[in-house]
Specification:
With 412 residues, the chain is an alpha/beta fold. It is built from 15 helices and 15 strands. It folds into 2 domains: 6-55 and 299-411, Aspartate Aminotransferase, domain 1 (Alpha-Beta Complex); 56-296, Type I PLP-dependent aspartate aminotransferase-like (Major domain) (Aspartate Aminotransferase, domain 2), CATH 3.40.640. It has helices spanning 6-10, 21-24, 56-68, 78-92, 107-118, 134-141, 162-172, 192-204, 233-237, 246-249, 264-277, 284-296, 298-326, 354-365, 391-411; strands at residues 43-44, 101-104, 124-127, 145-148, 152-153, 158-159, 174-180, 208-212, 239-243, 257-260, 333-334, 342-346, 367-368, 370-371, 382-386. It binds pyridoxal-5'-phosphate.
Amino acid sequence: MDKYDCTWFDTEIDRSNTNAIKYNSSKLNLTNGVSPFPQDEVIPMWVADMDFRIPRQVSEALHNAVDHGIFGYSAPSVNYFEALNHWFETNHDFHIERGDVFPTPGVVFSISVAIRAFTKPGDSILIQQPVYYPFERTIKANERNLVINELVYDGARYTIDFEDLERKIIDENVKLFLFCSPHNPVSRVWSREELTRLGDICLKYHVLVLSDEIHADFVYRGSKHIVWATLGSAYADTSIICTAPSKTFNLAGIQSSNIIISNPELKRAYAAELDRTGYNEVSQMALVACEAAYRHGQNWKDALIEYLEGNIQLIEERLAGMQANVSNTPAISLVKPEGTYLLWLDCAGLGLTDAELNQFFIEKVGIWVHKGITFGLGGSGFMRINIACPRSLIAEALDRIERGLMADKDNS
Ligand SMILES: Cc1ncc(COP(=O)(O)O)c(C=O)c1O
């Protein structure tokens, strides 16, 4: 079995001219022309893909498929389902029946299919903001009623306001709950107690749960991800579990996801809606990459998590140092991440408006992070930073942040 160490993830890879959204998209919109950083030198740390090369065995499997040279209509083989089940059994104690799997080209696509399969226009769908913004966008695009249960921030950590959630479910007659687990962007890995309490409320009011678990494999020391369906048969029976190899193995451009539904009635409704989209064959490359990743990717993934923990440690240490050097109160503090590679920075200490905050990061610091307000209610004053990149880039970003804070202090 292949071994991976830091050198795999330390390698800086040039992504220019590779159609990478992270590097190409909206470069021209980045600045208003006053930034001291040439546009190509603003470090992109926003969209959620990684700057790491995929596991060697996945590349080889894709190479072999290319060398074979035929790209006809494709369907997943027994081996595909075996690899998927093996991964989830080994990593998450989750057994997946082959007949419960819908291979699809992406989680957002699959959420949209679920919204149409299980709700009608005007029906209420609940989400917990701040949250991955396509949740809100997809609900609105499908003309459903958006209901928000805002997460509670105590200055260090996020929790759920269960009373508010239950009241809104009753008042708005909520039909579907789009749940993010682990949570992007507040990087919570929900505990069994939290999941069960949520589940019991949803069971009580017959709310269907779509659990988006695309970040399931990114969990740090001290936390454990629990697949919603493993809470018990009642919870499994009333849920749709969204999984994908795309975040774990950096395969977003390959477009591969697997949606797990065990309730036969829900399966029929989902299959019918999938049919209506006209999408019925998974891309050959998605099948090849997904199977190889789940079959051979364990060592790579374990090394990746260790590497990301190193990145997090560096960020924690340096931000603490900046607090001592630049200001007595933390101008920027990190919401301690339990999972995901998307870190949530509390920037309230800077005392800037959201527009000024964005300008600060792009023009004074020279890094391109995601605006907190993009993630909805509760996002104001925060920024989301993607740390799935070589440590050298993290160190450079931290140097820039420190210089930006120093310049700010000197001007005040
Ligand atoms: C919670 C969550 N769901 C879904 C996605 C995107 O999934 P896909 O690319 O499969 O549509 C992301 C990407 O960042 C995400 O964070």
